[in-house]
Design a protein that fits this description.
Double Stranded RNA Binding Domain, single chain, 3 domains, hpI Integrase, Chain A, 9 strands, alpha+beta, DNA polymerase, domain 1, 16 helices
């Protein structure tokens, strides 16, 4: 059993860690004790290495003893419970941002969801007063205008209330037993005539299509390479090594570095992007972020505002261009394994364990075949008597 030592401060004692030092002395674990209405109260506070000193412990003891005598909380645990019960929703969002979200790639998006769809209704409400029924009614309201967004908000709230329970703000999350609405997977693939319309609209000299010029080039890059919009938007010049684009692991969804072969049309897009980037480290420079890249949000907004103006009959998203490439690779006879590696997907099952081939050569062949197909779709090459005639770019 650990031995406790008294200090010169009344009601303050400590024990020493058997091995750990704090400075030149053994680390000390402080505890306080005092009587209120003839009842002995004792509470452990913490280690010297966590910031506790004898003076701070003595001041805390004096404060808690006075609070107990005046009918307030008798221990720090009770005081924290009262403070947590008074914590409002806005403060909890700020806390999870500081402790967790700002370390995550998806953190800003989660925070934005909570600020846009939840804070206007619950900002000043006490977290402890929010019940399952409140969450269901809020999600129903969001679902009426945006079913997918409702599911995203549900996910954000589930993590937020789990965080609150983990930190002792509430006992249990009110999000339990709330089911998400089923989502139908997207299946939008652009047809050849739609690809032609889009490509013409994305020409930099097409002044009738009021899309930010860097966004036009980024959309072309997605269609040419099949990479995710976020990976394309964040492209930097130092990721380009000769005729290969090396995407670092921290920018990939699966956290594995990925190489993308670059063909002639991608280099043409890059040459145009360099003229617009104004010396920025990013290939597709933002119009409002100082030396920052364009965002997937701005890219999606550009498509959403102009898809009808382009002449396309059904809406599409930037990510649908990635699906379009994947579908076209299948039509060209590219094997599923190679096509999935082009997109940067991990191999599954036993293949992932034993097959360590990088497929760089095969990926280049696949994207070269897709480029040839794309050239014919947009009219840069014509097939005549079985031969391909190159037209001027």
């Amino acid at each position: 059993m650990a031995k406790w030592f008294k200090t010169s401060s009344p009601g303050v004692r400590y024990r020493e860690h058997p091995t750990r030092k704090h400075g030149i002395l053994p680390d000390r674990y402080y505890s306080i004790y005092y009587k209120v209405d003839r009842h002995q109260i004792e509470e452990a506070l913490g280690w010297a290495s966590e910031g506790w000193t004898q003076e701070k412990v003595a001041a805390t003891r004096h404060q808690m003893k006075r609070s107990a005598k005046n009918g307030g909380p008798r221990t720090l645990k009770e005081a924290r419970a009262i403070a947590d019960a008074a914590l409002n929703f806005k403060d909890l969002v700020n806390e999870i941002w500081e402790k967790e979200l700002h370390h995550k790639k998806s953190g800003p998006q989660t925070k934005r969801l909570l600020q846009k769809d939840v804070l206007p209704f619950w900002g000043n409400r006490k977290v402890a007063d929010i019940k399952r029924r409140d969450i269901v009614q809020l999600l129903d309201r969001i679902k009426e205008r945006a079913p997918i967004t409702a599911n995203r908000v549900h996910g954000a709230l589930t993590r937020l209330f789990n965080f609150a329970a983990e930190r002792g703000v509430i006992e249990d999350s009110p999000c339990t037993r709330i089911r998400k609405a089923p989502e139908k997977g997207r299946s939008r693939v652009l047809a050849d005539n739609e690809i032609k319309l889009l490509w013409d609209a994305l020409a930099l000299d097409n002044m009738d299509m009021d899309i930010y010029r860097a966004s036009k080039l980024a959309l072309k890059m997605i269609l040419l390479t099949g990479q995710r919009p976020g990976e394309v938007c964040g492209m930097t010049w130092d990721e380009i090594d000769g005729n290969t684009w090396n995407i670092p692991a921290d920018r990939m969804k699966n956290k594995e570095a990925h190489t993308v072969p670059l063909c002639s049309m991608t280099f043409e897009v890059m040459e145009q992007a360099r003229l617009l980037s104004d010396g920025s480290a990013f290939m597709f420079k933002s119009s409002h972020l100082k030396d920052g890249p364009i965002t997937t949000r701005s890219l999606a907004k550009g498509v959403l505002r102009h898809w009808q103006e382009i002449g396309i009959e059904k809406p599409f998203t930037p990510h649908d261009l990635r699906r379009t490439l994947r579908t076209r690779l299948a039509e060209l006879g590219i094997s599923d394994v190679i096509a999935e590696r082009v997109l940067g997907h991990k191999l599954q099952g036993v293949l992932a364990v034993y097959n360590r081939h990088d497929y760089d050569k095969e990926k280049r062949q696949a994207l070269t075949m897709w480029e040839g197909r794309l050239r014919r779709i947009i009219g840069l090459e014509q097939a005549v008597s079985g031969k391909i005639v190159n037209l001027r770019w």
